[in-house]
């Protein structure tokens, strides 16, 4: 019953000094909203980044290979060092490789109907569509039957630049060669695993890219692994294979699982830092609560003296002021949680992320808010409980 009585008294005191209460609440509100919004945004960013990899699957291995030394060779000799069939042969000799999708990238002038187009050219086999989950919106993808054919598939951003309702069958100039558009790729979610953005690319058969430019070299492949394959064993096998068949090349691996793990760790650190930034703001709000409570103790000395004279214990006075501080922080914290959730929703909308309401940030924000109120409300409450009743009653 005493707690209810103290709560009613605290609420009356807060309502009596509305302006002061609102100013004290503002600091708590901003601090709590910052914690909730920043931590939620960090978790949303992590979820968005991980979702990109989950769409592709975790059983992926990116392989890039470059010549170790620079020496003068012709473009043709450089190209012949690694051929598509070299990678196809690797798939049959190393266990755990489900599909190997080599690709080549080059930049050449792109012209459509006299208009210059911004983009680049990727030479691929038909396996890349399955490995990288490239959906086709119109027409079809490159197939192995199109070897040496002057066919191409355009990305979504390339299609937007063409300004034609139906590009299928249209001709586009890549370098000095004329290609026929046979497909339009659907919007592709860009991710850091595949080095090229399909939306900004024109995809051609890998055998045909040499006709566009003699400088195109095969330096990349995306490998889809068998389920539960040992990545380190496969890396060792690929390294040994290259040492035997292309010793002048150095290899660079990127595993989807390793990237996800590294990204999760980085995002956790990032989210923690954001939470600390919000926590500093909440700390400042807590100092504001302490100042307001100290002023309240000073103004209410006669009331405190009267309560003590009528039989109230110092502990009762201390609890009364602690409840007032917690009630003040609770109102600010509740509003701060709501504003933080709304802010994180707007951040997700602006960034184009899928919004998910996480349970932990609001709970942490509100809990920290209460702890801050207890910590900073304790000293004013302690000061009030130590007042001498006679001295307090004499206060004018």
**N-to-C series of helices and strands:** HHEHHEEEEHEEHEEEHEHEHHHHH
Shape: elongated
Number of strands: 12
Unreliable parts:
71-80
The SS-based structural class is alpha+beta
> Major sheet: size, sense and barrel closure?
12 strands, mixed
Radius of gyration: 33 Å
Oligomer description = single chain
- Helical amount: 55-70%
Q: Count up the domains.
A: 2
The count of helical stretches stands at 13
Percent in strands: 15-25%
Q: Report the mean per-residue pLDDT as an integer.
A: 82
The span between the termini is: 32 Å
Describe this structure in a few short sentences.
The chain has helices at 2-16, 18-56, 75-80, 84-93, 127-131, 156-162, 209-212, 231-245, 256-299, 301-309, 314-351, 360-385, 389-394; strands at residues 60-67, 97-106, 110-112, 115-117, 120-124, 136-139, 151-154, 171-174, 177-185, 201-205, 220-225, 249-255. The protein has 396 residues and is of the alpha+beta class. It is elongated.
């Amino acid at each position: 019953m005493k707690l209810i009585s103290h709560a009613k008294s605290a609420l009356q005191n807060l309502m009596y000094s509305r302006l002061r209460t609102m100013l004290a609440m503002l600091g708590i509100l901003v601090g709590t909203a910052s914690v909730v919004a920043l931590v939620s945004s960090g978790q949303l960013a992590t979820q968005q980044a991980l979702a990109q990899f989950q769409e592709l699957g975790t059983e992926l291995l990116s392989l890039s290979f470059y010549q170790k030394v620079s020496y003068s060779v012709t473009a043709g000799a450089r190209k012949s060092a690694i051929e598509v069939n070299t990678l196809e042969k690797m798939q049959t000799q190393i266990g755990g490789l489900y599909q190997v999708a080599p690709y080549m990238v080059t930049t050449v002038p792109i012209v459509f109907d006299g208009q210059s187009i911004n983009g680049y050219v990727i030479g691929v086999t038909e396996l890349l569509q399955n490995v990288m989950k490239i959906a086709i919106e119109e027409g079809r993808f490159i197939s192995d039957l199109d070897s040496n054919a002057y066919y191409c598939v355009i990305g979504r951003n390339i299609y937007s630049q063409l300004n034609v309702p139906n590009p299928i069958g249209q001709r586009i100039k890549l370098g000095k060669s004329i290609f026929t558009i046979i497909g339009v790729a659907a919007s592709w979610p860009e991710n850091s695993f595949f080095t090229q953005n399909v939306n900004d690319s024109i995809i051609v058969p890998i055998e045909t890219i040499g006709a566009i430019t003699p400088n195109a070299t095969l330096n990349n492949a995306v490998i889809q692994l068998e389920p539960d394959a040992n990545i380190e064993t496969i890396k060792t096998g690929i390294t040994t294979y290259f040492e035997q068949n292309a010793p002048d090349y150095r290899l660079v691996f990127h595993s989807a699982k390793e990237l996800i793990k590294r990204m999760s760790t980085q995002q956790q650190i990032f989210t923690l830092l954001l939470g600390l930034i919000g926590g500093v703001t909440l700390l400042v709000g807590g100092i504001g609560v302490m100042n307001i409570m100290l002023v309240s103790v000073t103004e209410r000395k006669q009331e405190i003296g009267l309560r003590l004279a009528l039989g109230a214990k110092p502990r009762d006075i201390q609890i009364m002021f602690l409840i007032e501080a917690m009630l003040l922080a609770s109102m600010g914290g509740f509003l701060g949680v709501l504003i933080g959730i709304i802010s994180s929703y707007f951040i997700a909308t602006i960034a184009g992320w899928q919004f998910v309401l996480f349970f932990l940030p609001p709970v942490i924000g509100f809990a920290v808010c209460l702890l801050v109120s207890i910590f900073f409300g304790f000293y004013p409450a302690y000061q009030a409980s130590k007042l001498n009743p006679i001295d307090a009653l004499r206060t004018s």
